[in-house]
Write a structure and sequence with these properties.
The chain is of the alpha+beta class. The protein has nine helices and twelve strands. The strands form three sheets. Strands 1-4-6-5 form a four-stranded mixed sheet. Strands 2-3-7-8 form a four-stranded antiparallel sheet. The protein has a four-stranded antiparallel sheet with strand order 10-11-9-12, with helices on one face. A hairpin with a 5-residue loop joins strand 2 and strand 3. The protein binds 4-diphosphocytidyl-2-C-methyl-D-erythritol 2-phosphate (SUD) and adenosine-5'-diphosphate (ADP). Adenosine-5'-diphosphate binds next to helix 1 and helix 2.
């Protein structure tokens, strides 16, 4: 069986407070976008190993057991009977990008194994397992525009139709570490909920909707802030860094013509 784990963008992100466990409570809108990896499982009854893992595409430079697909496999196997399986990941979503590509692979792996082996596991149970893999993993089980609170794992559906817009996604050759990005922030409660702010016309979002990571990440890597400025100069209705960076997205009414350096990953698509 094959599936296509997709990336997400964060439309606004407020880091609200630091928790005693070291994590942070936040407020964000997760929005799925059609930039995908491909993930395949093949039942291999002859194999003596519980899994055989192979990968292609972007090299994430991690041992198989460090790959979140395998962490998801092991987590499910600790709770359910799983026969031997061959797993192949074709990696296309840039990582260290704030696009949640690793989290998507983990969540989709759980769902794929459930389908392949017809496991009796509910969506709520899958969400709980996914949350053990990463704070924003549970979102990818639902994979619908969501308002997220808590550490990113408390989810509420939101109506958000961006199908009139093109998205341009730019990822410079910079890897931002998520824990470092959280360390760079002074948490502050927000005065208006993002569920209210996304009701405003997209053209007004730039005055109201921000990503709290931008200030410290742009100070350390001015190139990322410059990309956001260039997206506005190219006519974006709204532009924002996604998650803890380093990718930046712009929403455009018409297909943009961009002149980004070849070292940047550039992806443009009608939503
Ligand atoms: C910043 C966000 C915004 O959507 O996304 P990315 O930029 O990674 O895509 C997420 O909060 C990232 O979630 P995720 O990448 O799943 O985080 P995890 O693997 O669970 O945690 C990595 C580290 O980030 C910090 N962390 C993460 C989530 C959170 N709410 N508070 C935190 O302080 C902790 O230091 C933790 O050890
Ligand atoms: N399947 C995977 N895809 C991407 N990164 C993975 C995967 N498995 C493990 N990782 C590790 O997770 C980190 C990036 O996770 P990811 O969620 O893609 O990042 P971000 O959301 O910050 O862009 C990297 O350190 C990478 O080595």
């Amino acid at each position: 069986m094959i599936c296509y784990p997709n990336a997400k963008i964060n439309i606004g992100l407020n880091v609200v407070e630091k928790r005693p466990d070291g994590y942070h409570n936040l407020e964000t809108i997760f929005f799925p976008i059609p930039l995908t990896d491909a993930l395949e499982t093949v039942h291999n009854p002859e194999s003596k190993e519980p899994y055989l893992f192979s990968s292609s595409g972007i090299d994430i430079d991690a041992k198989p057991e460090e790959n979140i697909c395998i962490k998801a496999f092991e987590l499910l196997k600790a709770n359910y009977e799983l026969p031997p399986v061959n797993i192949h990941l074709h990696k296309m979503i840039p990582f260290g990008a704030g696009l949640g590509g690793g989290s998507a692979d983990g969540a989709f792996m759980l769902n794929l194994l459930k389908k392949e082996f017809e496991l009796d596991v509910t969506e709520e149970e899958l969400q709980e397992l996914a949350a053990q893999l990463g704070a924003d993993c549970a979102f990818f089980i639902k994979n619908k525009p969501s308002y997220a609170t808590g550490i990113g794992n408390i989810l509420q559906d939101v109506e958000l139709d961006l199908s009139d817009y093109y998205i341009a996604l730019i990822k410079p050759p910079i890897h931002v570490s998520t824990p470092d990005a959280y360390r760079g922030i002074t948490p502050t409660p927000s005065s208006h909920s993002l569920t209210e702010l996304i009701q405003l016309p997209v053209e007004q979002w730039k005055h109201h909707i921000k990503n709290d990571f931008e200030q410290s990440v742009f100070a350390k890597y001015p190139e990322i802030g410059k990309i956001k400025m260039e997206l506005y100069e190219a006519g974006a209705s709204y532009a924002c860094m996604s998650g803890s960076g380093s990718s930046v997205f712009g929403l455009f009414k018409t297909e943009p013509s961009l002149n980004m350096p070849p070292s940047c990953f550039t992806w443009i698509k009608k939503l």
